[in-house]
Write a structure and sequence with these properties.
Layout lengths: L2 H39 L4 H37 L3 H36 L6
């Protein structure tokens, strides 16, 4: 392997870790919070633990939707920045931000409206 190839490979690893490390920390922290939530409610019984884990599953579903939006935004903004079009980049970012805010409010309203139904669906209470 030539020194130029080795240097390029080393720079790529630094770039990859610069991007990957923050998201890895976020996902680790989310899972840690989920485990701590289970620990906090463990003495309340199996119904409480079931409620926490079900809530975490819904969070993961909604989070996956927003991650998809984020990845798409990053790709499109990168393309527009690469073609030296900062106005298009700003438009894409602003559109993505509005969609994210709308999805956040929509998900919140969905959970507020359908929580009793979802609790019944998963049999998280005794009848």
């Amino acid at each position: 392997m030539s020194s130029q190839t080795r240097e390029l490979a080393n720079n790529n690893w630094k770039d990859i870790w610069a991007i990957a490390l923050p998201s890895s920390v976020v996902y680790f922290t989310v899972n840690l919070v989920n485990l701590l939530a289970i620990k906090i409610v463990a003495n309340l019984g199996s119904d409480a633990i079931a409620a926490i884990t079900t809530g975490a599953r819904f969070y993961n579903i909604f989070n996956a939707m927003l991650i998809g939006l984020s990845v798409g935004t990053i790709a499109l903004v990168s393309q527009s920045r690469g073609s030296d079009n900062p106005l298009q980049s700003a438009k894409l970012f602003n559109t993505s931000l509005l969609i994210s805010i709308g999805l956040g409010f929509g998900m919140t309203l969905f959970m507020l409206a359908f929580t009793p139904f979802l609790v019944g669906l998963f049999l998280l209470f005794k009848i």
